[in-house]
Every structure is written in structure tokens, then in C-alpha cells.
Design goal:
It is a single chain. The chain has 2 helices and 8 strands, in the order βαββββββαβ. The protein is of the alpha+beta class. It folds into 2 domains: 106 residues, no CATH class; 41 residues, no CATH class. Strands 1-8 form a two-stranded antiparallel ribbon. Strands 2-7 form a two-stranded antiparallel sheet. Strands 3-6 form a two-stranded antiparallel sheet. A hairpin with a 2-residue loop joins β4 and β5. α1 crosses α2. The protein is elongated and about 90 Å long.
Length: 148
């Protein structure tokens, strides 16, 4: 199982993560979504064969500072107040050291297959983007937002 899905922006010509600005798409003249997806999948599989996962753990030690207790005796009564005190627990997370290298491998693999990377704006709700074999990236006016 892959620990991280690092190619969502490359997964298809019109699949884009939730963003408001331009999105990077892959483009190859005359291809349809199924062919692009097949090529992305093949490049991802090749990247895992060439560059295996190397899972490392990042540990953040946390921080602890004990509180200060101040007590006062007032007319036979003792009143105590607690000040300060911080406890931030330690945390750890796993990450793949080779993720960036595999991402670059996939980009080079797709470029070797004739794909280019083009920035296009996100489509508005009323714009349509059919899955047709475009001849030029200039024909692609916008890209659809990926489903949530």
C-alpha cells in the first residue's frame, strides 16, 4: 500500500485538487483521459520499482513546564492559586524520504512519453470541459475541480 499519494495533480488531465488558482495538468496531443491515466499509472509503478519507499519517523519531543502554586494565609484561611504550567505532548509522524525523488521520476517518465505540464485555470460551474483528444494545450481553456 502506498503511504502517500503524491501524484493527484498528474492523475488526469482534468483532475485537480481543491484550489482556487491555476492547476498543473499533463498534456499530450491526441490523448484521452483513459490513456493519460494508464501512462500515469505505469510511471508510478515504475517509480516504486526503481525507488522503493524509505519510511522514516520524525519525532517532536514536546514541552513541559510545571505550574507555580502560590498560597496566602488570610485570617485563618489559606487561599492557593496556580499560575502557568504548559504540557505539550510529544508527537511523531512517518514520512517517505524518497517521495520527492519518485515524484521527479514520474514527471521525467511522463515527459519521455511525450507529455508536457501546463498550467490552466480552474473551470467555473458553468464551463464544460469534454474529454476529447485535444491537439494543442491552447485548446484546453480550463480544468475541472477534482471530486471531493
Amino acid at each position: 500500500m502506498r503511504a502517500v499519494f503524491f501524484i493527484p495533480a498528474l492523475a488526469g488531465l482534468f483532475l485537480v485538487s481543491c484550489q482556487t488558482g491555476p492547476a498543473t495538468i499533463i498534456f499530450k496531443p491526441g490523448t484521452l483521459g483513459a490513456e493519460r491515466q494508464r501512462d500515469v499509472d505505469m510511471c508510478e509503478i515504475a517509480s516504486f520499482k526503481e525507488i522503493p519507499q524509505n519510511i522514516a519517523t520524525q519525532i517532536n519531543p514536546g514541552y513541559s513546564s510545571p505550574p507555580t502554586v502560590q498560597c496566602n494565609n488570610v485570617g485563618g484561611f489559606v487561599a492557593c492559586n496556580t499560575f502557568g504550567g504548559v504540557n505539550i505532548p510529544a508527537s511523531a509522524y512517518n514520512y517517505d524520504v524518497n517521495q520527492g525523488l519518485r515524484f521527479r521520476f514520474v514527471r521525467r517518465c511522463l515527459q519521455a512519453k511525450g507529455y508536457s505540464f501546463v498550467e490552466k485555470p480552474i473551470c467555473t460551474a458553468d464551463q464544460k470541459t469534454p474529454d476529447i483528444p485535444y491537439k494543442s494545450p491552447d485548446e484546453v481553456k480550463c480544468v475541472r475541480r477534482a471530486p471531493n
